[in-house]
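thought: fold this chain, then report.
action: predict
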Amino acid sequence: MGKRFTVRITLVVTMVIVCSALAWRSVTASEQQKLWLKFDSAEKAKQWQNIDDVVMGGVSRSQFTVTPNKTALFSGKVSLENYGGFASVFSRLADNNLSSNQGIEIRVKSDSKRYKIYLKNDPTLDSKSYEAHLNAEKDSWKTVRIPFNSLVPMFRGQMVADAPKFNPRDVKSIGIVISEKQEGPFQLEIEYITVY
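observation:
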């Protein structure tokens, strides 16, 4: 009797521990997904890489830094010399499956320039991206939501008519770009990037 009781208690305790662990793991995964990209340390800037028109012979320059206010700052100067005219920054992601979400949410403060956010399903640099305008406001914080189904397939500034739809199950990278011949200094501040 005592032995059976001990076995039962052991099984119950084991089940409670397993269920608790699964519940904790589920909550943690959910929290990690919701708190997708934050800029709470200077180290976070190292996860982003600048790609400017220098790769095509241009002379535009950009940088991506983390401010003391724990925001990211994408800034620089766009030049039209040597047929240039764009600057961008991107971060590689570890096979993020975002299919349970509707889109991207980003909180930004802009200057008077126009910016695009883009996502990629292909990890290579010279591949199409899925883009949307940020529609940020000048000198004022704004939370922008971009549905996945509104993203437009683009390659080197041109729409790709026969491209497949964006696949939220396999997101390889995310980036921000300023183009459209917007010459001169620029500055875009980002508080966070998440999903909704």
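thought: worth noting. The CA atoms of residues 90 and 175 lie 4 Å apart.
final: tokens above.
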